[in-house]
Structures are given as C-alpha cells and as structure tokens.
Amino acid sequence: MNLLSIVIPVYNAKETLERTLVSLGKIEQGSRHSCEVIIVNDGSTDGSMDVVDGHKTLLESLNYSIISQENRGLAGARRAALERCEGEWVFLLDADDELEFDPVPFARESPDASALTFSVIFRKDMGSPSRRAPGHVTSDNHLDILTARNPLTASSLVFKRNKIESPFDEGVPALEDWLFWLMNPGLFENVKRLADIVSATIHLRAGSLSQNRPQLGQCKQIVAEKVTARFGNKLTTRQRNNLRIQSYVGTIMRGEKAPLRRFTCLPCDPLLYVKLLLYSSGLADSIESLGLAFTRG
Question: What is the Cα–Cα distance from 192 to 178, expressed in whole angstroms?
Fold first, then answer.
C-alpha cells in the first residue's frame, strides 16, 4: 500500500497546471516509491490533459493515475479521488498551487498522528507572498474553532485516510474544505503541528470562485445548516450561536437583509461577532485588514 496519496483536481487549469506538476519534483527520489498521485480531470475542455501528457516522466516515477469524469466541482473531484486512492495518508493540492516540500518523511515519522498541519504561503496575482501558520485545531476545540472560522487550507494538512467519516459534499461548490474539516472530527484526534514547515504556495486569482461573494454567502448558510443538523444537541450554546452568525453573514453576503435578532447571538466567538458587525455596517472590505477574510469561513 502507498504511504501517501496526493490528490490534484483539474478543471480547465491549462494555464497553471504545469507549475503544479513541476512542483511535484520536490518529492525526493527515495520517497517516490511510497507515493501516488491521483489527477482528477473534472470535465476539462481546455487541453489541461495535454499538460499532464507533457510531464509523464515525472508522474510515472510517482505512480500516477487519472480519473476522468463530467464536471462535478472541486468537492466532487476530491470525493472521486478519495474513493480511489490507496495511501494511508492524503494530501490535497489544487491545480493552480505549488507543493513546497516532500511530505513523505513527515508522514513516515508520525505513525500515531491523525493529521499533520503545516504553514502555507499565499500569493495574490503574483504579488508579495504572505505566510500563514495553521490554526491549532484539536479534538477538544474542534467545534469551538471551526464553527467560528476556518484557519486551515486544503494544502495545510496531511491527514489519515481512515479518519474520514464523511466525504466531500458536492452540494457545497465553495468552502467545501471548511465543511469537510467540520464533518470529520476524527482528523483532529492527534494532530502534530509543524508550523515551521511550509507545505504549499496558494495562488489567489481575481475572479476565482473564492472571490464570488454571493455564492460564498450561500455556501456559508449551507455549511451552517449541515453542521447544525450533524451535531445537533452536541453543540454548545456558543457553537450553535457561531453557526447562526455564519448563516446571518451569509445572508448579508448574498445581498439580503439579515433579521435583527442576529445581534442577540451571545455567547459566541468575539472575532466572529466583530465580523457580523462589519458586514451589517457595510464594512466588509475592512475584514481582510483585520485578518478575518470572508473567503475562509
């Protein structure tokens, strides 16, 4: 069995996919026999697979396979890959991002961990990079942290496949990783945090799905509904209020009015409450400067 499966969803990524595939060269020769790469062609129509064909020499050394399917979105592509992969560990890498390290030695040295978390670098439109450390999510604070915000990106974790209880939800076209973390508390049973190591560079582009505020708002509402239904009476009052606020923020992001009772959701996470106040006041653009970017749950 492979130690590690790297999952790369591809949808019309011809312009960026080469950068992603070349970055796989950071995996050392001694690690490649323990690694598989699963590329999901999620209904691409732009010749993305020609880019894959041009890098077969590198990919063959990593035991790669391709899944071709009609477009199902990022969640559907990841879900298909997780149903196929054989690795004990999983790493998610998008087709416009770059791998920055060899994850195999870290997985090999941490047999008892449920997940390993790393820092990532964000770069917007090839501007100056910014580094973000992973949030310290554990089994004890899982719902406290993740109902309030998503301090993790898809590529900031290497996680155990056997800890997955709920697959990626295809009904959520954005914020799908946030919902995945929320629905799979087992991933955080024994987390090893390696904030001094950078796992990936995340390239943010203007006009991408993550910049579509109305759709993000709708997805935020869906996430809140699904998590409330999933955990029910296990939620504390604070966690339940966090989810209510998330839903109210989502309503405002969609250009609709949230009910006045939104301001009565106490106790709750204080930073999330500030986020609600800023959105309610029409000051959403101030959120990013406070480290509360609306793209991250």
Answer: 19
What does the pLDDT read at residue 10? Answer: 98
Q: Compute the half-sphere exposure of residue 193: CA atoms within 13 Å on the CB side of its CA.
A: 11
Q: At 197, phi and psi to the nearest 5?
A: -105, 135
Name the residue with tokens 């190591």. Answer: 197
Residues 6+ apart with CB under 8 A from 243: 147, 224, 227, 228, 235
Element (H or E) spanning 205, and its range?
none
Domains with residue ranges and CATH for the chain: 4-204 (3.90.550.10), 212-296 (no CATH)
Q: Tens digits of per-residue pLDDT, 255-292?
A: 998 877 777 889 999 999 999 988 888 766 555 444 44
| Percentage helix, strand, coil for the chain under 3-state DSSP, each rounded to 5 | 45, 20, 35
User: Residue 224 corresponds to which tokens in the numbers above?
Assistant: 């809140």
Indicate whether this model's pTM tops 0.90. yes
